[in-house]
Amino acid sequence: MLGKALSSAVPHGQVQPSTMWSMTQHLYILTGASRGMGLAMARQLLQPGHTLLCISRHANPELAEAAQTADVPLAQWTHDLADGEGVSDRLRDWLLHQNPAEFASATLINNAGVIPPIMPLRLSRPVDLTQALRVGLEAPMALCAAFLGATQAWSIPRKVLNISSGLGRNAMASQAAYCAAKAGMDHFTRCLALDEALQANGARVCSLAPGVIDTDMQVQLRGASGETFPDQSRFLQLKDQGQLSSPEQAADKVLRFLARPDFGQAPVADVRG
Q1: pLDDT at 7
Q2: Known catalytic residue at 28
Q3: Per-residue buried b or exposed e for 50-68, using 16+ beta carbons within 10 Å of the residue's own CB
Q4: What gap in Å lies between CA 7 and CA 12, rounded to an integer?
Q5: Which domains are assigned to the chain?
Q6: 29 CA to centre of own chain
Q7: pLDDT digit string, tens, across residues 153-188
Q8: Best exposed site among 77, 161, 228, 247 by fewest CB in 10 Å?
Q9: Which of 28, 103, 147, 178 is catalytic?
Q10: Residues 78-102: pLDDT tens digits?
Q11: C-alpha–C-alpha distance, residues 254 and 250, integer Å
């Protein structure tokens, strides 16, 4: 049973399985769901007929309470996404123990990402660069491999949504690691789309830029030193002029894009068109 499978997959206290669920749930696997747009997406995915598996460094008690209130199956795995091998092995093993007949569809959303200290590359510490690339590029690649490999024989529709950024397509000073991670995400998604197009029931995949969102990441950008971050004033203006989407607004746009019938037609896209 799905509730039992969820309960056995994670430590006690992190699971809120539904007491009533249909035999055909839509499975969503979401990283970086403990705050920001990821948390907003998780909240909006807590709907009847959905099963949600969240993977973040920290569980969110508020999300667990909301899932219990909505009677929606939820699991929250606490895992550092810098450990791409460990988290992808865990996901692969969990998926291989699921009964695909219980699901109507399966979707992986790679949302987690980090910005290392904002400074020119010559001043950056290798440990910070490694962390940014592991969370922002290595883990999404490994999770895609685990998800698609474990579900290859599933006959249901499958999707992969990678949350990218305009900075993956436009260079910015003092943002080398973040820009590189997102550019890499865009390009490996293009490769992934070619791979899946050759499969009988290949997944539909897309690397999507969600627009400019008022999250902790924006606070980090606005608070950076103008001496080491020449574009700081631009981000201050975006905030002052009210040009930032709220996490809830951005999540709604992203999930609407995910639900579009032409999702995956373009492997790299932007919610702004």
Answers
A1: 37
A2: no
A3: bbbbbbbeebbeebbebbe
A4: 8
A5: 2-211+246-270 (3.40.50.720)
A6: 8
A7: 999 999 999 999 999 999 999 999 999 999 999 999
A8: 228
A9: 178
A10: 999 999 999 999 999 999 999 999 9
A11: 6
Structure tokens at 159: 């999707």
How would you classify residue 13: left for phi > 0, otherwise alpha for psi between -120 and 50, otherwise beta? left
Q: How confident is the model at residue 23 (pLDDT cuts 50, 70, 90)?
A: low
Distance CA 164, CA 133 (A): 13
259 Cβ partners below 8 Å, 6+ apart? Answer: none
**pLDDT of residue 113 exceeding 50:** yes
SS (H, E, C) the chain: CHHHHHHHHCCCCCEECCCCCCCCEEEEEEECCCCHHHHHHHHHHCCCCEEEEEEECCCCHHHHHHHHHHCCCEEEEECCCCCHHHHHHHHHHHHHCCCHHHEEEEEEEECCCCCCCCCCHHHCCHHHHHHHHHHHHHHHHHHHHHHHHHCCCCCCCEEEEEECCHHHCCCCCCCHHHHHHHHHHHHHHHHHHHHHHCCCCCCEEEEEECCCECCHHHHHHHCCCCCCCCCHHHHHHHHHCCCCECHHHHHHHHHHHHHCCCCCCCCEEECCC
How confident is the model at residue 6, as a pLDDT? Answer: 53
Interval 254-267: pLDDT, tens: 999 999 999 999 99
Which of 59, 34, 15, 189 minimizes the C-alpha distance to 111? 34
Of 92, 25, 103, which Cα lies nearest the Cα of 55? 92
Tens digit of each residue's pLDDT (9 = 90 or more) over 130-146: 999 999 999 999 999 99
Instruction: Tell me the percentage of the chain whose pLDDT exceeds 90.
Output: 78
Alpha-carbon span 203 to 197, nearest angstrom: 8
